[in-house]
Amino acid sequence: MPRISLWNPVRGADFNFTxxxxxxxxxxxxxxxxxxxxxxxxxxxxxxxxxxxxxxQDVLFLTNNNRKYDPNVIELRGHHTPQDVNYDLSQxxxxxxxxxxxIQFHYTDMLDSLGxxxxxxxxxxxxxxxxxxxxxxxxxxxxxxxxxxxxYAAAGYGQKWFPHIWLVRAKLMTASVEFKEITDxxxxxxxxxxxxxxxxxxxxxxxxxxxxxxxPGTGPxxxxxxxxxxxxxxxxxxxxxxxxxxxxxxxDPKFFESANLYIYLDPNTNYPVIGSYYFSGDGEPxxxxxxxxxxxxxxxxxxxxQYYLRIDxxxxxxxQKQGPVYKLIEENVLKNWTAYNRVLDTFIDNNKxxxxxxxxxIPEKQALSEIVKQKVDLxxxxxxxxxxxxxxxxxxxxxxxxxxxx
Amino acid sequence: MDFFFDNQTRxxxxxxxxxxxDIKVRNxxxxxxxYTIQRVPIMYGDPSSMVAQLIKGASExxxxxxxxxxxxxxxxxxxxxxxxxxxxxxKASVMEREFxxxxxxxxxxxxxxxxxxxxxxxxxxxTFKLDVWTTNIQTKLQIFEQIAVIFNKSIQLQQNSNIxxxxxxxxxxxxxxxxxxxxxxxxxxxxxxxxxxxxKVEGWINPPAKLKRSGLIAEIVTxxxxxxxxxxxxxxxxxxxxxxTSIGGIPIQIVTTEGNYRISVTHTNTGDEITLLNEFGQPxxxxxxxxxxxxxxxxxxxxxxxxxxxxxxxxxxxxxxIGGIQQDPxxxxxxxxxxxxxxxxxxxxLPISSIIDPLEVTPGNGLPIAAAxxxxxxxxxxxxxxxxxxxxxxxxxxxxxxxxxxxxxIIEYNGINWVVIFxxxxxxxxxxxxxxxNHSQYTFxxxxxEWTYTYYGIYxxxxxxxxxxxxxxDGTSINNYE
Lengths: 406, 482
What we know:
The structure holds two protein chains of two kinds. Chain A has helices spanning 12-29, 107-114, 180-187, 191-194, 222-228, 231-248, 342-348, 380-404; strands at 31-36, 38-41, 67-69, 74-80, 87-90, 93-96, 100-106, 123-131, 141-152, 165-172, 293-295, 307-310, 316-322, 325-332, 353-355, 361-363. By secondary structure, chain A is of the alpha+beta class. The two termini of chain A are 61 Å apart. In chain B, strand 3, helix 2 (49-56) and strand 4 form a beta-alpha-beta unit. The two termini of chain B are 28 Å apart.
């Protein structure tokens, strides 16, 4: 008679019985959780779009920033323990004090439904947590978690030592580039924030919404987007801060509201007294006086005391005809506010194009490391030779080292 | 104590946050190969819980966007090094253009004139922090690279555009960065990655200013103290004690200065020196220019200068000698002084070669052989000025037979004879000449009948002043007196 042993490398009927029982528990009592399966980065390290689940997008920093998700959302049943959480006020706003949950899934059902295990990067959508923010025109949105890690649950091992339960630790999703496909998909209006992609699992009291054109699933719905993603709210706050700052100082780099101040005129010549330093740098004649015009050269026929703005200077310069000379009065320094200084501005906020002598049009703004780069690799042959020589030398060195040990 | 408040700290913070309000990141490519540009929002990092809840929509499901900036005030400290004359009042006068209240427009004509008085603001350094929350390092590097070129190592900003606010321009210094708040590599918990920048903002806190209707008070005061007016008054009060009679040609001026220090301006082999003296006119090595100057401001090289007043009337500045100063590195009570030659009185006599006693030295005997253009200022060890330094009729005199010159005279060799070109006994007013041997200028006053150094000597309180000692908040240097 063979020795009694629960362990058997062959799972057998006992395992199947237990597994079906466990699975039944999940299917009957589990929460319906929608899985957005990660299918790979949009590109690999070389920019190729033919990627797979295991492709690493940035091999230096070991990150996958731009992710593709399977547009087909699959429902799994899982167990988790809802917790009372507190809000955690941080410098970036309010987070949940415990934004991580643990969810258990039936391993076999998971494999049957997804074709693979849940892995880090998969996104879980919880219709059961559906909630409506207090914003105007807000719609109901589900809660999204991102799988951080996944492994067999210690409590999920059966009598035969085979596991039945897959434990997932997931964290609340942020509206960041990694999950752009998820949020875009949710905003498409397909069944309210992407609930089930037509599976139609909707809590009572909620009805499907449509996009801004009234067509479900054909475009982004701003109400969904603004309900789900706080970017619009916070960029609005940013814009309000900028608007208030602009009230204090509108132009760049130094702007003084002095056009209301009277510029003293020399009683003998009626010319402005430059030293009175109340010029505001707007290129306008003092005391609201008339400007003859603006251009790249002084017009003929200017009479004494008339003003002209030369726009061929940078910054533009206001001149006054004073006897036989054109006297520089002030520069027009008012421009759009930026944090950069005036010179750096011309390097960064630069939309100009350069037309080369061969007719090629290229943007003037170029990364310094890329400027006037060779169009074909003129060192390709040399590189091959050097590489081949080094390979041969290395082979000899390795062979000698294998023999002598150094 | 009356209330005042001008939202000054808020303005500094607003402009600071504005710096980062338009930083962008480039996301992608997405599954369609497209890239998107996204602004990075910024908000204050210490919101009230209630407003944070409102932003969140009172829902646990809304998602905070990342990347995101958060800025907040981390500290504030008074900066003693930027402190200037704490009780200084800066004045400015402006005239507005005439305002047409009917058309609500300004005309090109002069309007009302106004005087503004600004009390010295208090220098404060604000520590502002900027936290950057990112979810991947590529985004973080994009943000870092854009911020990195803004600060090298500071930028100037403007917290308001009022030309009369001398604190409107301020400086933001990038002082420190923390790459991440996480430990590397990250442990079991996936912390939010936050990069931090620490900035110093050199600000000023102003009390309220005064706005006054501009008047002509200065002219009225001048008329009241005009000597002719005083003499008229004195003449009308015949036989009665008249306090104005003690005024003389100069209004009474009572000078009170910090420490009532005097100074001694002297010439040395290495140049001019100004020694700080105590109120009794005695030198004291323990006196310190640095301590005295710090009471008002600081020495700004090539800008701060000392003004020596030669005219007895303090209100007359035409004859002031102005020169640059530099602290003597080994003597704390001594400044090195370089007079601005443009402020010296114009020479009335061509330069002399030296000062000589013509009985002690002669051409070819202690002096170079006579050559045209040589000039000497004469002195005499045995003459009180009434006896000639070069008496007439001396046989074989190396100065010639025809010349008679007295002490204080200046003689010149014209190629044939020595002649007197400056007759000290018959001159009127002041004359000036430079000695090419030591490059010093001398002044001859016909009243005192003496040659003196033009500006060497002891100066009483009020007769020396330091110009451009205060570095005003707007970066200009100004005086500590009006």
